[in-house]
Amino acid sequence: MSATNPGISLDLEWISKVRVNTQAVLRRAQHVQALKIPKDRWQAAWLLKAITLIDLTTLSGDDTPSNVQRLCLKAIQPVRRDLLQKMDMQRKEVTTAAVCVYPARVADAVSALKAANASLPVASVATGFPAGQTPLETRVEEVVRAVADGATEIDIVINRNLALTGQWEALYDELRQFRLACADAHMKTILAVGDLDNFTTVYKASLVAMMAGSDFIKTSTGKEAVNATFPVAIVMARAIRDYYLCTGYKVGFKPAGGIRTAQESLLWLALIKEELGSDWLCPHLFRIGASSLLADIERQIYHYVTGRYASFHELPMA
Ligand SMILES: O=C[C@H](O)COP(=O)(O)O
Does the keyword section mention Nucleus (predicted)? Predict the structure, then answer.
């Protein structure tokens, strides 16, 4: 898998012209929140689709080789086979899009997936995740090591100081170094929007990340006080659309942080369909980064199949 967005030269003139209309964004976000969610069989089908777009994540201080192995097995078979069969869907095999772990756990994930004969991508967070407050050489080295350990997707965090102070050239240069270090691995750039001061900064940071060659832009680490929200997603999706219209390169979008319910996942799919079109509803261009969403989706699917909600013991633990 090679990069889909090679990037372009830094266009400071474009960046300086950006002004985001906050009221218009908030109105659009309200519209998205009021969208009708499909019911019953269609809902179950959309939930299966949502599963295929999840980066199943564990980013905890107490991650161990064994819980990473469990995560990988869950990613390979996120829904019980009997439930899938009862749904009578064409799709017989469902997996999540990838697993996402800390750099020190990449080798564990790679070997667990290999042992299970599965070819799911392993994504590693990097560059001093979550705060990005380590020296640049250390951050670059972390990317190189994660790739050497077998990660094929790298979720880097940006240096928020550079975005908050408008040092776009310096931010672009850092991101180019990470892009080089990623080699053939996909680069997903986390803006940590909860740390940025307004929508205009979010839009500008999105543009710089794409100009530097990011394959995805991602909202959050999941560790900020505010993570993925619909207004911020609309701003980032519009930056993606504008970048595509200007360059012809499609960049992916990954909301992450605090997405926990099946209903929310359906609204995220609806938002992407409305803002970027159905082309973006594939793992190559859209992911949901989540550590605890899958359990609720599985519960809803169980409800669809059996007509009742699962008790605590009826579903396998994630
Ligand atoms: O990148 C993924 C996020 O860290 C996941 O956040 P979450 O634990 O709130 O789902």
Answer: yes
